What we know:
Structural class: alpha/beta
CATH superfamily of the domain at 3-108 and 289-311: ATPase, nucleotide binding domain
Order of helices and strands: EEEHHEHEHEEEHHHHHHEHHEHE
CATH architecture of the domain at 3-108 and 289-311: 2-Layer Sandwich
CATH topology of the domain at 3-108 and 289-311: Nucleotidyltransferase, domain 5
Strand order of the largest sheet: 10-9-6-7-8-11
Helix content: 40-55%
Distance between the termini: 43 Å
Amino acid sequence: MTYVLGIDAGGTKTVCLLADGAGTTLAEARGGGANLQADGELAVEKVLHQVMEEALGDRAVMPAAICLGMAGVDREDDARVIRGIMARIGYKARVLVVNDALIALEAGVGGAPGIVLIAGTGSIVYGRNAAGEAARAGGWGYVLGDEGSGYWMGRLALRAVVREADRRGRATALTPRVLRHFGAARPSDLIHAVYARGQRPAVLSALAAEVQAAAGEGDVVAQQIVEAGAQALVAAAESVALRLGLSDEAFTFVLAGGIFRGVPLLADEVTRRLPAVAPKATVRRLEGEPAAGAVRLALAEATGAAVVPVYKSN
């Protein structure tokens, strides 16, 4: 019997699935975030080792192949580090390391053409056409981009609060919500809460829930944040669709990531706007785990048949 591991390593959580040769999930393990830039090599190795060991448990099985989906591994320097980690803890299995966007797309549409929009702690849009060509937009990290992500929303919520405090911006229901979130009595207390505690992107990403709540209550500032995030994600999807020649094709847009679940107003707005990008396409939310896409790729890798799309030149 063939066994494989499929791993989705994200900024907030890591999910590892053990599956048999038919793709049936036998066990699932969860751990903390495993982002190489934010957490460092040793922390990433610890998380990956933990979830793999937990998924295998006491079973007397050895995986034939492992597929790991992780942000940033398109960059050769990062890929080299991750391949080194997997060589140390990979059970001598065949190991395939790919961008986490690919496993989310694989989970959503299998091997078919499609475009996945991921909004989690960070954000990226990734697509693949029938010729096996890939293109991406976003995925630049929280300093350079990540528009529409949880961190991006959280940062804009904080800015809205301090702008109101300075009388540079309009009053917003985000102020009492953000202050309560940090246990702060006044906006000036946010300086210590944000800077002195060295808040990680995943922590600020939690503020996206406050944006959803305020926007749902009709707060204009929060609604503008949601609309701006949707506009940025759809613009990235348009860029990918144009480069892959998908604008006039029938395919599926897949919405993946925790922010689409936690901020349904964002998912609704993105869904409303996407038909303008590709009128023949359909839109669906990814209900299962992206790690299921890693299982599919691991099963293919076990027989040497895994195909990773090649990025199309800009």
